[in-house]
Amino acid sequence: MSREKAELPLKCAQESVLAVGELVENITENSNENIIEALEKRREEARLGGGQRRIDTQHSKGKLTARERLDVLLDPGSFEEYDMFVAQRCTDFGMADQEIPGDGVVTGWGTINGRMTYVFSQDFTVFGGSLSETHARKICKILDLAVQNGAPIIGLNDSGGARIQEGVDSLGGYAEVFWRNVQASGAVPQISVIMGPCAGGAVYSPAMTDFIYMVRDTSYMFVTGPDVVKTVTNEIVTAEELGGAGTHTQKSSVADAAFDNDIEALLEVRRLFDYLPLSAREKAPVMAMNDEPARQEMSLDTLIPANANTPYDMMEVITKLADEGEFLEIQRAHAGNIIIGFMRLDGQSVGVVANQPMVLAGCLDINSSKKAARFVRFCDAFNIPLLTLVDVPGFLPGTAQEYGGIIKHGAKLLFAYAEATVPKVTLITRKAYGGAYDVMASKHIRADVNYAWPSAEIAVMGAKGATEIIYRSELGDADKIAKRTADYEARFANPFVAAERGFIDDVIMPHNSRKRLIRAFSTLKDKKATGPVKKHNNIPL
Ligand code: HXC
After folding, report:
1. What domain range is 407 assigned to?
2. Catalytic site positions
3. Nearest residue to 429 via CA among 524, 332, 305
4. What is the pTM of this model?
5. 504 in any annotated domain
6. What is the pLDDT of residue 31?
7. Ligand 1 within 6 A of 202 CB?
8. Are 334 and 191 in the same domain?
9. How far apart are CA 272 and CA 295, in angstroms?
10. Residue 378 in this model has a pLDDT that exceeds 70
């Protein structure tokens, strides 16, 4: 056989292998194209949620969609979605043919100014954002990942509550979420934004998170709605009056802040996020700030009025001490006699608790004690140092306070400060009277550094009240009482008796306060403090 003839079968075989290869390649290319097309199509469907008509309705109410909200909340392009194709599995009440991908909640993670957070955003266009078994499972997955990986969880709530068609499966789903909220509490920061309805037992998931922000006019939270209220109690009330942002930021204190629209609320969440560590495993964040740590504020030297009963604005002290004058206030509309919020001192996140002499003379009462106690506990759980600014004439007297349980509620604040092991620095600007002196992060309940301005008055009570008790028999003689009052003032209306005992570490000039506080916190940055072994304490709830 010639050589040419002998090679023919090999050539044919090679050609046919090539042809088969080309065919396979074409088929693969086509099917890849089909798969990619199918994937894109499925993604597009999922992104449309409940469809354009419902999206338009959402927009017509002034609300963004679940995905648009995430676009505002997270850094551009940082969102990674999980479980986009998860569909509900209920077959009752005509649900068998209703499989909307995502099942009414968009979940995943992204970044805020480069720092990671897990998120879920309920999609009202899909079954009214109602919570089914699978919807709950998506949220649970995100909560589990957040705790495991040490990153906060931000939930955007816009939901008609339990998926009515599902019954107990939905209720079980809620309870699974609740349980995880509790596991996550103190492990990672949890932030809720209420951006639509949040009613019935559904309110208890946000209620167990650290911060609740609401949107005015479009969001509400209540355990039972206006119709049930009317049937049971005969009260006629609108949803807004019953559970709108105004009600919850001013009266109930369920919510921490209210904003005019979705965008404003979400941008404020970004601002809050920057003050928080990602988890309890981390220290509080430090950011580069454009402010001089030793900056003097001469105006603070003349801020305290000559008359001890004349109020001044503690907010002025706070903003003058803070880096770049920036302060993020929490619960501004509730219990104005105490101010809580975050500032930075030389870049370091610091939690601030301050009496406000402009409201109720800065007295501690039920609402202010509860407000501050929860904040102190949050800061302690997340390693955020505490700065306490004191001007407190005591606890608010009256039957309303006693009947309302000021003893138990005031004890919350005392307890919270006493158990807190984060760095605690206290500055007394004027009054620190009676039990309230002890409560407001005094040395005795283990504040680390305690300063006072020369204007401080640290005493059991004001000079007039004290004189009237000690010298009751002389009350008819105005001159004598005036002299006794002046004597008492000279002895106790100053910081020096406390300083002599070491209860105050130093009496500092107001204009130097920023520098002294920053230096105090710098000595405490590696503070270690532990208490006795126990399962948990029993704070007076
Ligand atoms: C299933 C629901 C739903 C729900 C709303 N939808 N709520 N689907 N389960 N819970 C659907 C509607 O059928 C509608 O579908 C779409 O969502 C939008 O609802 P609308 O009523 O058209 O919207 P709107 O007029 O804005 O009223 C919103 C609403 C209202 C106030 C939330 O829908 C409502 O009252 N829903 C029921 C609320 C409720 O009673 N939930 C259970 C609470 S008890 P289409 O297809 O028309 O778009 C609970 C217990 C939790 O949650 C317990 C946890 C422990």
Report:
1. 298-456+494-523
2. 200-201, 435-436
3. 305
4. 0.92
5. yes
6. 74
7. yes
8. no
9. 25
10. yes
